[in-house]
Each structure stands twice: as C-alpha cells, then as structure tokens.
Amino acid sequence: MNWKTSLFILVAFAILNTSCGVYSFTGASISPNVKTISIQTFYNNSPLGPSNMSAVFTERIKDYYLKNTSLVLVNGEGDLQLEGSIDNYTLTPVAVSANEDPSKVDLTSLTRITIFVSATYANLEDDQFDFDQTFSFYKDFDQNREDLSANEEEFVNEIFDQIIFDIFNSSVANW
C-alpha cells in the first residue's frame, strides 16, 4: 500500500469518525444536541479526611469532563447536570502484624482508605441515563513503610481518579 492510499484511508476514517459527533476516543457517547454540562460543588460531608477534599474533587471532575468531551462547562442549567457530595472517608485495618514480643500489642500493618461519593446525574436530553448513585474506591497502604500524613494527598488523588472515571463512564460513556 502506497502512502497516498494510506493517507486516503486515514482521512476517510477521521471524517467518518467525527461527522456524526456522537462518539469519541474516550468512549463518551454524547448526543450531538448536548452541548453543555454543569457540575456543582461536591461538598465534603465526611467527618474524616483532608479538609480540601471538596475543592480538589470538584475541580478534578470538571477537568476530566472538559478534557475528555467537547462539552462546555456552564454555571447554570447545563444539558447535562452533575452534583453530589463526598459522604465518607474511612480508615479500616486490613491486616495485623504480629509483634515478636508477646508482652506488646499486635499492630495494624495494612490499612485501607475508602472514600464514598454520592453523585446525581441528569441528562436533560434523555432522562433514561439519569442516576443517583454512590461510588467508592479504596487504597491500601502499609503503615510500617508509608506514613499516612506524608502520603495522604497522593492516596486521596488516586482514589479520586478511579471514582471520577467511574462517574464519567456511568454518565456519558453509558457503561
């Protein structure tokens, strides 16, 4: 196959892929009539966790939608509307390490951070995609090797990445 044929196939594929305006390389399946999205602040209702979780999560989810769709973010009533809250942040012991000295207490070596986020999604174009759902994800860390206070921001961001991905897929990717 010569370079002209390859170029023709590439251009044809690009035209066919963008002409209908419904699908994207991110897996988003958005009606061409949908142009805007409004994302309200996800308030932190959790008794634990970093104090800036609300601002971090809200900005990260806005950025994710803007980078992975052609939607325009609006403050008011968007064609798609997303709101919710960070409902819980838990620290749970997952594994205990036995202390070699029987007179000392066994300690938790592996701890799990779990974050729960409630999200309400409304698609004004097609309400069959609407949902009100809780998303959660976790990160396990070894307290003997990783200090929570030094790594908490990194752990929370990793958890947020997965929750945002799950919300995105449930809303515009229709998975």
TrEMBL record:
The keyword Lipoprotein applies. The keyword Lipoprotein applies. Keywords: Lipoprotein. It comes from the Bacteria. This is LPS assembly lipoprotein LptE. It comes from Reichenbachiella carrageenanivorans.
